[in-house]
Amino acid sequence: MKTAHSLNNESPLYAPCRQLMRDAPFGWLKKGWQDFTRAPWHGLTYGLIFAAIGWLLVYFYSINESYLIVGLFISLLVVGPALAFGLYDISWQLEQNNQPTFSHERGKALHEMGHELMLALLLSLMFMFLLILISIALNIVSTATEQTAVSAAVPLSDTGFLVIAIVFGGLLFGASSFALPMILDQDADAMTAINTSFHAVWRNKAVLALWALLILALTAVGFATALIGFVLIVPVLGYATWHGYRETIISK
Questions:
Q1: Is 6 helix (H, G, I), strand (E, B) or coil?
Q2: How far apart are CA 234 and CA 170, in angstroms?
Q3: What is the reported pLDDT for 197?
Q4: Taking a C-beta distance cutoff of 8 angstroms, is the pair 89, 104 a contact?
Q5: CA angle 40–221–183, rounded 5-degree value
Q6: How confident is the model at residue 149, as a pLDDT?
Q7: How many angstroms separate the CA atoms of 87 and 82, rounded?
Q8: Residue 149, SS3?
Q9: Whose CA is closest to 131, among 171, 177, 190?
Q10: CA gyration radius for the chain?
Q11: Three-point CA angle 112, 51, 217, nearest 5°
Q12: Which helix (H) or strand (E) holds 12?
């Protein structure tokens, strides 16, 4: 049975999604917290790993070792999806009323490694495209600043930068919101997962905008606590993302 629009009536472009209630993200966070309390040591382990990566980035930046920062960032592109997979798999195991195991999480991540890496590559290309466009925009504004009054150019610069950041930040958010959970749940390829994520976010713009704001707020809390807060925030957000996927995307 086909569950999505298709190419040549065979290859699905994206899976269908549900229309969400406006307060749905709060329910996802509640379920995420419940999953954390059911398997606290698993969640804390992943949270500590993410926090440790953050501390390493801060340390490398403080000693001005750019090559270490680049190396860690590239490693994170590979390791990050696998770590997120672990969190989603914990919620999946809890759904089955099983006691989560690290071996199951590791096995699932390894099984989907090809799709994970392709997703990481596609999102990285989008991210680099974003940086290039921002650099071009800043160069244009810088040139304009030399030709016009600074007082007039600065507000334009700030507004333009904000618009670019919001638009392309939204594109990255749309591409990644439900992509990894779909790969884990349906063994989907990276492009189908990205298309599905875009489609679901577009159909539920107001709800997913609220979800993005909640993520930003919790991320700010994490930074405000010298990254210590991420030990708790990361697993809860990971579990909540899984439940958001479950409520939004219609599985086969």
A1: strand
A2: 20
A3: 92
A4: yes
A5: 55
A6: 47
A7: 9
A8: coil
A9: 171
A10: 20
A11: 95
A12: strand 11-12
Alpha carbons 60 and 222: distance in angstroms, whole number? 19
* Cα gap 87→214, rounded to integer Å: 19
pLDDT confidence of residue 59 = 78
Cβ neighbours of 50 (radius 10 Å): 23
pLDDT at residue 175 in the model: 83
Q: Looking up tokens 């798999």, which residue turns up?
A: 89
Lookup result for tokens 């919620």: 91
Q: Which two tokens stand for residue 31?
A: 């379920």
How far apart (Å, rounded) are the C-alpha atoms in residues 67 and 50? 20
pTM value? 0.79
User: In order along the chain (252 residues), what is the average pLDDT of each group of 10 residues?
Assistant: 42 83 96 96 92 82 68 59 84 92 76 65 69 67 54 51 70 86 86 91 94 92 91 94 95 76
User: 102 and 250 in contact (C-beta within 8 Å)?
Assistant: no
Could you tell me the CA-to-CA distances from 124 to 15, 67, 119, 121, 251 in Å, in that order?
Answer: 23, 18, 8, 5, 27
Give the domain ranges of the chain.
20-248
H/E stretch holding 23 reads none
